[in-house]
TrEMBL record:
InterPro entries: Xre-like_HTH, Xre/MbcA/ParS-like_toxin-bd
Protein name (record): DUF2384 domain-containing protein
Domain Antitoxin Xre/MbcA/ParS-like toxin-binding, chain residue ranges per copy: 80-132
Ranges where the Antitoxin Xre-like helix-turn-helix domain occurs: 15-74
Length: 134
């Protein structure tokens, strides 16, 4: 049996994910108690005017990098909810010191706030491994 080939879908054919992605992101930022500077940093430090426009309107057209970052944050949030059924505990885990190798005694949020999208990937991968998804 032949394997189906992936088809290239032009970006113009994709649904506009900006609004839903931003609304989900800002809901997570509230749940995590992020300050504006922290929440903005997780998105790669978009221009301040853009940041406040997105926050106020809960809509916009973020670029590919911002959508990738939001995707990692959504995955981190979801995995924490699975690992810690108590939402308060799940949300608090991010700020707790962690002796695991990727964190070196700092918190997962410290690692995520480095500004590199790769650090969001590291935290997501760590949590997926804790969940048993490798």
């Amino acid at each position: 049996m032949a394997t189906p080939r992936a088809q290239h879908v032009p970006a113009t054919a994709l649904p506009d994910l900006g609004g839903p992605a931003l609304r989900a992101y800002f809901a997570i930022a509230r749940a995590w108690g992020l300050k504006n500077a922290e929440a903005r940093r997780l998105l790669g430090d978009p221009p301040e005017s853009t940041w406040y426009k997105w926050k106020k309107q809960q809509d916009g057209s973020p670029g590919r990098d911002v959508l990738e970052r939001i995707s990692y944050v959504l995955g981190i949030f979801k995995t924490l909810q699975v690992l810690f059924p108590d939402p308060t505990r799940a949300d608090a885990w991010l700020r707790k010191p962690n002796a695991a190798l990727p964190f070196g005694g700092g918190s997962a949020l410290d690692r995520m706030l480095s500004g590199n999208v790769a650090d969001l990937f590291v935290v997501r991968s760590y949590l997926d491994a804790q969940r048993g998804w490798q």
